[in-house]
Amino acid sequence: MNIEDLERQQLELSKKLILEDTKPIENIRLVAGIDTTYTDIWTNPTVAISSIVVLDIENNFKEVEIVFAEKEIDFPYIPTFLAYRELPSILEAYKKLKTKPDAFLVDGMGILHPRKMGIASHFGVITGEISVGIGKSKLVGNFEMPENKPFSYKPIFVNKGKRGYILRVKKNTNPIFVSPGNKISVDSSLQLALKCIGRYKLPEPIRLAHNHLQEYRRKILKEG
DNA sequence: GCGACAG
DNA sequence: ATCTTGTCGC
Fold this sequence. Notes:
Blueprint: H1 3-14, E1 30-38, E2 46-56, E3 62-73, H2 82-96, E4 103-107, H3 119-127, E5 131-135, E6 152-158, E7 161-168, E8 176-182, H4 186-195, H5 204-223
Parallel strand pairs: 1-4, 4-5
Antiparallel strand pairs: 1-2, 2-3, 5-8, 6-7, 7-8
Helix pairs in contact: 2-3
This protein binds two DNA strands through strand 1 and helix 2.
Function: DNA repair enzyme involved in the repair of deaminated bases. Selectively cleaves double-stranded DNA at the second phosphodiester bond 3' to a deoxyinosine leaving behind the intact lesion on the nicked DNA.
Keywords: Cytoplasm, DNA damage, DNA repair, Endonuclease, Hydrolase, Magnesium, Metal-binding, Nuclease
Subcellular location: Cytoplasm
């Protein structure tokens, strides 16, 4: 498939997006974080490693479950097509989950994407899960910078439509980009992200998925 | 035409 | 995204 075909596929998938709340935010208790890394980012093909960590946000972010998956991939990183690179290994990890999280936070964008199909939305549409995108830098959109104080935020617009929020979690830290993946509204995505903030700038599910992934990667590179 | 461009 | 220790600043 070429880029044009992939764009058409994204547009087709975007028709299945549900951008309304499908569950009261107060009933979301088990929140999963998803992150992906690579054994080598400079080669293709390479091996993608994904992890999903499930936390109970009403019990001190207690870890309920963690799974990993490794998968050989041959799709390069191309802006706006991240899902085609990372989703295969993410879905393998997803299959290993024994618990059923109420929602998933995915490292990357949701509808804060040219065709509303960032990796969090792609994951949400494919699995039918409630998902939210958590990005660390800008992909698309117009916005004002939030003030340099904790929990200040500004809406992000794409073609006049509100697609997400830029949120500064802590003072003197770069803001993060929050947008709905699927089955949740723009505003509730922000509320859920806020509920998942612990002591650091990244929501706990994402932060822990990232941390566990790093140690897992170190270990397999060392041992083989 | 030019710059921007998640991980 | 990865390679990497200490170090400067709030």
